[in-house]
From TrEMBL:
<dbReference type="Pfam" id="PF00266">
    <property type="entry name" value="Aminotran_5"/>
</dbReference>
<dbReference type="InterPro" id="IPR000192">
    <property type="entry name" value="Aminotrans_V_dom"/>
</dbReference>
<dbReference type="GO" id="GO:0051536">
    <property type="term" value="F:iron-sulfur cluster binding"/>
</dbReference>
<keyword id="KW-0479">Metal-binding</keyword>
<keyword id="KW-0411">Iron-sulfur</keyword>
<keyword id="KW-0808">Transferase</keyword>
<keyword id="KW-0663">Pyridoxal phosphate</keyword>
<keyword id="KW-0408">Iron</keyword>
<feature type="domain" description="Aminotransferase class V">
    <location>
        <begin position="6"/>
        <end position="376"/>
    </location>
</feature>
<dbReference type="InterPro" id="IPR015424">
    <property type="entry name" value="PyrdxlP-dep_Trfase"/>
</dbReference>
<dbReference type="GO" id="GO:0031071">
    <property type="term" value="F:cysteine desulfurase activity"/>
</dbReference>
<comment type="similarity">
    <text>Belongs to the class-V pyridoxal-phosphate-dependent aminotransferase family. NifS/IscS subfamily.</text>
</comment>
<dbReference type="InterPro" id="IPR015421">
    <property type="entry name" value="PyrdxlP-dep_Trfase_major"/>
</dbReference>
<dbReference type="GO" id="GO:0046872">
    <property type="term" value="F:metal ion binding"/>
</dbReference>
<dbReference type="InterPro" id="IPR016454">
    <property type="entry name" value="Cysteine_dSase"/>
</dbReference>
<protein>
    <submittedName>
        <fullName>Cysteine desulfurase</fullName>
    </submittedName>
</protein>
<dbReference type="InterPro" id="IPR015422">
    <property type="entry name" value="PyrdxlP-dep_Trfase_small"/>
</dbReference>
Amino acid sequence: MSPRLYIDNAASQPLRPEAQEAMARAADLLNPAGQYASGRNARRALEDAREQIAELLGADPAEVIFTGSGTEADNIAVQGLAFGSKAHRGATVIASSDIEHPAVMEAVDWLTSGPMGFGFRRLLLPVDATSRVLAQQWIRAHGTTNAQPADIALLTCMWANNETGALQPVHELAQFAREHGIPFHTDAVQAVGHIPVDFHALGASTLAASAHKFGGPKSTGILLARRDADILSPVRGGGQERKLRSGTVNVQGAVGSAAALASAIKEMEQATATQTAARERLRAAVESIEGAHIWTPREHSLPGHLHVSFPGAEGDSLIMLLDAAGVDASTGSACSAGVNRASHVLTAMGVPVDVARGALRLTIGADITNEQVDYLAGILPRVVEQARAAGMA
Ligand code: PLP
């Protein structure tokens, strides 16, 4: 087997050669706002990247905003749409679920229960045991909740969950939002580059993506924002990027993102086939381990995710043992990395804390080999046994 198996692609994917080459070509570009030759050169490269991304994601170039990360794109959308709705419509309810990534969840918490007293309150979207938001149930109930559509400042739902990989009913939610004039944001950080994404077909107000999740550079986010989206951005400054994300634009990052996205989309079909086959073989290996729980649904999920729990084992022990065996994996929960805490996604699904603490997220790359799958499937039972023997912290 090759020296190490990297199976944490949902955390960050290796830089694609196409992105690396495009970024090397763009390395010397200067400030795209400059009113002189070097500025024009940088601007041309930036606008080419914007056009390419727009075309690949079903958006207009003017709707593509480059940001400093997926987290920043989420924050501009969540805070900006909420502020816009409050300022111009007096709406103060934010509807979101408990399975969002901290990039959205913390922003919603900040607005609804943070120390600043922004005056928003939260309406919870229900989630089922497979980590899917119950859109129809919520839509049917909206008339009987104490928030009417006119009160809703923002409806937000991720496209795919970063832990379980479960795809969310974003089309149903976007349609409901559109019919009622509610701004709708989707955190598509795990979806873009992995499944087909069409911004106009979805009809959301905003969508967040992050280049390093599809083989682009780190700290380069993309926010798609409809022109009529009422966003009062929390990022204030020189007014770049439609005044939504002030700050000198990272042209090299934009160019790398466009190249990576083009490559990811070109290879998507093949990648999906490879990942699905590997995932199902790993699923069978996990199923054979006593007491194992598998959280990733077989249907309606990202092809490369396999999120599991082994009760009696600590997630961090599993990761350390795998690391020692040459495998890079994670528990999958951003906030619990390095801290023995149960994942908020699993607890939102109703999973007991002791079961949730034995979580392991395997996220498969498109270049995985049969030999690597066999190796991982072969060592897993022993790793689980050793982690169980080590006990819970
Ligand atoms: N949203 C989701 C669903 C994610 O998985 C992540 C990263 O793990 C983010 C947002 C944050 O993206 P970034 O690392 O670019 O800030």
